[in-house]
Design a protein that fits this description.
CATH topology of the largest domain: Aldehyde Dehydrogenase, Chain A, domain 1
Distance between the termini: 62 Å
Number of helices: 16
CATH class of the largest domain: Alpha Beta
Bound molecules: nicotinamide-adenine-dinucleotide
CATH superfamily of the largest domain: Aldehyde Dehydrogenase, Chain A, domain 1
Number of strands: 20
Shape: globular
Strand content: 15-25%
Strand order of the largest sheet: 12-13-14-11-10-16-17
Radius of gyration: 24 Å
CATH architecture of the largest domain: 3-Layer(aba) Sandwich
Length: 477
């Protein structure tokens, strides 16, 4: 254990890590204070002096080592994620895979020729380079303790910034392991640090005068708060919020493929994904496909191939949404409330739940449930289905299931969301295509990964040069 980790574990106040699988405390982690944010910023500022002066290639070489360590640590990291988040081991492994993919993108940045130079007038050259911002921060949610931090850390630090990560207080262990791996890979102390704590730590980050940029991923309510607070103190901010993803299902969709994909989309990570299927919009008669979704969902067994809900209060919220919808007239096709898993009686489980005949006046039709729950809404035409999706305040993901290329093309164009799927239940773009939604699912400019993240983590310097006296005098011409 190095000093940084020892200090963190020995902090006076502690955060109890409750495993959703058993409902028991499995670990205690130091609860850091806002004074620790100041200390981390000071350390990061010092580290920035030398880290930012190294070449992009030099920094990316260290990230190659990190990428290999991440791959080698997959089993232990996935186990930490499983225990503190509650998802299945395979889901935990999949998020480490995605973290590796983004790290590989960061490793490849030297290949992208980020700087440009051209002769702008005879004998006059302008060189544009992308410079790091300084100390930057990332505030992350409970559902992907490894993948979401990796949307930002490798790219931000490869570009020469020093980053402070504030993970969700529900899942503080994964971040500590990641911090250890970065140090082990040779990333100098201060370049990447974790500060574990609650909302006060995130607020201190948004207020700190020496933090230049803030990336946030979490609920829309907090995304808005963090975005406004960061902008008020002159920082650039990109804040990703919640979601309500609609899947439009047409009668000609392949029932087997659609059934399996939609059931997997609503239930993966126990529905705690910002890209999870939330509303199935049935266009006309799609009963055979609905039956196929229900049949597939019945194969999901809590505690086996369906993970736990990360917190007890989230489980209560999800069950509350289901009960309210039933009281308001929704038809229950599959009920996941009151699930008890043998041997894990105190775990926080909700089984797959499917509600039919959901109407726009029900809260479940437009609010984020964030659990393994699918609402089915019925319309007669494709245009009505598009209009229903377009009414959502969110705009993260949406999909259409059909075998008609021309209808799919029209729907994909007209859906109002940043990430669209055609016969895909979870349309997450692979790198180097970037991740990001629209409207209440994203505050700020650009996407969080891929090419636009390069602009977010850098500022441009333009150097105009002339060496020969005889070269053009009026360089504006
Ligand atoms: P959350 O908003 O409760 O918490 C996210 C982070 O904000 C945590 O680190 C938390 O400590 C901090 N925080 C909480 N209250 C705060 C406050 N008042 N001021 C400053 N910081 C505060 O979200 P969560 O429950 O951890 O995660 C689930 C949410 O995240 C869902 O809404 C989900 O859709 C969203 N999410 C979105 C994406 C995306 O890409 N759009 C990805 C993953 C998760």
């Amino acid at each position: 254990m190095n000093t940084t980790l020892a200090e963190k574990m020995a902090a006076k106040e502690t955060l109890e890590v409750i495993s959703p699988i058993t409902g028991e405390v499995v670990e205690k982690v130091g609860l850091q204070s806002t004074a620790d944010v100041d200390k981390a910023v000071d350390k990061a500022k010092e580290a920035f002096n030398s880290w930012s002066k190294r070449t992009l290639r030099d920094r990316s070489q260290i990230l190659y080592t990190y990428r290999n360590l991440l791959k080698a640590s997959m089993p232990s990291l996935a186990e930490i994620i499983r225990v503190e988040n509650g998802k299945t081991y395979n889901e935990a492994k999949a998020e480490v895979e995605k973290a590796i993919e983004v790290t590989e993108f960061a490793c490849s940045l030297p290949q992208l020729n980020l700087d440009t130079c051209s002769e702008v007038s005879r004998g006059i050259y302008c060189r544009m380079s992308k410079k790091p911002l300084g100390v930057v921060a990332s505030i992350t949610p409970l559902n992907f303790p490894c993948m979401v931090p990796h949307w930002t850390i490798p790219i931000a630090i490869a570009l020469g910034n020093c980053m402070i990560l504030k993970p969700s207080e529900q899942v503080p262990l994964t971040g500590l392991k990641i911090e250890q791996l970065f140090l082990q890979a040779g990333v100098p102390e201060g370049v990447f640090q974790v500060v574990n704590g609650k909302a006060d730590i995130a607020q201190a980050i948004t207020q700190h005068p020496d933090i230049k940029a803030v990336s946030f991923v979490g609920s829309t309510k907090v995304a808005k708060l963090v975005y406004e607070a960061s902008c008020k103190t002159g920082k650039r901010a990109l804040c990703l919020g919640g979601a309500k993803n609609h899947l439009l299902v047409l009668p000609d969709a392949n029932p087997k493929m659609a059934g399996a994909d939609i059931a997997a989309s609503m239930s993966g990570c126990a529905g705690q994904r910002c890209m999870a299927a939330s509303v199935l919009v049935a266009v006309g008669d799609v009963q055979s496909i609905i039956k196929s979704v229900v049949d597939e969902a019945k194969k999901l067994i809590p505690g086996q191939n369906l993970g736990a809900i990360t917190t007890c209060s989230s489980k209560e919220r999800i069950e509350g949404y289901i009960s309210q919808a039933i009281e308001q007239g929704a038809t229950l096709l599959l009920d996941g409330r009151g699930v008890v898993v043998e041997g894990k009686e105190n775990g926080f489980y909700v089984g797959p739940t499917i509600l039919d005949n959901v109407t726009p006046d029900m809260a479940i039709s437009n609010q984020e449930v964030f659990g393994p729950v699918l609402s089915i809404m019925h319309v007669d035409t494709v245009d009505e289905a598009i209009a229903l999706q377009n009414k959502s305040n969110y705009g993260n993901g949406a999909s259409v299931f059909t075998q008609s290329g021309s209808i799919a093309t029209k729907v994909a164009e007209e859906l109002k969301a940043g990430m669209i799927g055609v016969n895909i239940g979870v349309p997450v773009p692979r790198e180097p295509f970037s991740f990001g939604g629209w409207d209440d699912s994203r505050f700020g400019v650009g996407d969080i990964t891929g090419e636009s993240s390069i602009d977010f983590w850098t500022q441009r310097k333009k150097i105009t040069t002339k060496w020969n006296a005889e070269d053009k005098k009026d360089w504006m011409s």
